[in-house]
Amino acid sequence: MTLLRVIDRDGIEHEVDATTGITLMENLRDLDYGVGAICGGMCACATCHVYVDADWQGKLPAAQSDETDLLRDLSTHRENSRLSCQVKFTPDLSGLRVEIAPDE
Predict the structure, then answer these.
(1) What distance in Å separates the CA atoms of residue 25 and residue 23, rounded to the nearest whole number?
(2) In what order do the strands lie in the sheet with 96-100?
(3) What's the pLDDT tens digit per position in 15-65?
(4) What total number of domains does the chain contain?
(5) Using only C-alpha atoms, what is the Rg of the chain?
(6) Is 17 exposed, middle or buried (0-12, 13-18, 19+ CB in 10 A)?
(7) Which residue of 20, 34, 59, 79 has the smallest Cβ count within 10 Å?
């Protein structure tokens, strides 16, 4: 099992059996409490915005400029904000903990 820990917008933490080799967004969008992912992963809408647990921030690849530009425009932006469509979920990320950001 490749574990993904997800805190929904109600503050409830869920443990999800996630699929590797796809993006974090693809793992989250089909959950009842997941992300909107309106643009389908094209880094164009920010509806897959998540907050990455501090213990995991340094284990993710750095955000590219298009992602950081979108994130900076959000009123809910934090230092640990990421667009889940830009994070490939690999076996090394088993145990990753994220919180679904509020809708904008």
Answers:
(1) 5
(2) 13-17, 3-7, 96-100, 49-52, 81-83
(3) 999 999 999 999 999 899 989 999 999 999 999 999 999 999 999 999 999
(4) 1
(5) 12
(6) exposed
(7) 79
8 A C-beta contact, residue 74 and residue 49:
yes
The CA–CA distances, whole Å, from 53 to 30, 39, 40, 86 equal 21, 24, 24, 16
Output the domain CATH number for residue 69: 3.10.20.30
- pTM value is 0.95
Copy the structure tokens of residue 9.
């917008």
Residue type, 47: T
pLDDT value at residue 15: 97
Report DSSP letters for 58-100, one per residue: TTSPPPPHHHHHHHHT-TT--TTEEEGGG-EE-GGGTTEEEEE
64 is in which domain, residue-wise?
3-100
Q: Hey, is 28 helix, strand or coil?
A: helix
